[in-house]
Amino acid sequence: MTTTTTGSPDLTTGFAAIPTTIIGDSQDRFGLPAGLHPMWNSEPFAGEAFTVLTAPGDNLGIHKALAEIRPGQVLVVDGGGYEARALIGDLVAEKARAMKVAALVIDGAIRDVMDIADIGVPVYARAVIPAGPWKNGPFRLSTPVTVGGVVVNPGDIIVGDADGIAVITPPRAAEVLATCHERLAHEEESRAKYRELKPND
Ligand SMILES: O=C([O-])CC(=O)C(=O)O
Ligand SMILES: [Mg+2]
């Protein structure tokens, strides 16, 4: 079954300026995939999820997804967390850049990591390994998936920064974004106060 609910572009853009830590804290510290890390020092991003569920180590579905994905969307791939075979490399990253994809979030491994940094598409994954992918399927597109233990539905808002990934469900997005702004203001107050502390205060 496919569930597609779309967040408004304004809300999605609004989240790009919010740290993933604050987003997590603003939704009871849920919605934060574990084990996926930025593969290079990319800029923060936010976009809607285009999901792929694939057999571990097989990227046929990723190629099919890149023919359908829209500019600004985030390709979210449930590869079952398999780390022994890369699901993408520089060629897939080149394709993603051409399609103006906001980022690639891979619950699996990648390769060609140096070239990917040059290409400039943010990529989050579990591991780097030279072994390449099979290209046989099976796969499903635009279906609910799990990445790093978090369910991602097509159209969920995906945010990434140096700390990792946050997932926001569109029906809660406006409320979560408002809570994020409150928390940012509160943290700024605490930060200012702590800066004034002297030893033994
Ligand atoms: O062979 C593949 O599909 C993965 C890869 O190395 C690339 O995308 O450059
Ligand atoms: Mg390659």
Automatic annotation (TrEMBL):
Catalytic activity: 4-hydroxy-4-methyl-2-oxoglutarate = 2 pyruvate; oxaloacetate + H(+) = pyruvate + CO2
Assigned protein family: Belongs to the class II aldolase/RraA-like family.
GO biological process: methylation
Organism domain of life: Bacteria
Protein name (Swiss-Prot/TrEMBL): Putative 4-hydroxy-4-methyl-2-oxoglutarate aldolase
EC number: 4.1.1.112, 4.1.3.17
InterPro entries: RraA/RraA-like (IPR005493), RraA/RraA-like_sf (IPR036704)
An MF annotation (GO) of this entry: methyltransferase activity
Cofactor (UniProt): a divalent metal cation
EC top class, as a word: lyase
Subunit-structure text: Homotrimer.
Keyword Methyltransferase recorded: yes
Protein role: Catalyzes the aldol cleavage of 4-hydroxy-4-methyl-2-oxoglutarate (HMG) into 2 molecules of pyruvate. Also contains a secondary oxaloacetate (OAA) decarboxylase activity due to the common pyruvate enolate transition state formed following C-C bond cleavage in the retro-aldol and decarboxylation reactions.
UniProt source species: Pseudarthrobacter humi
Keywords, sorted A to Z: Methyltransferase, Transferase
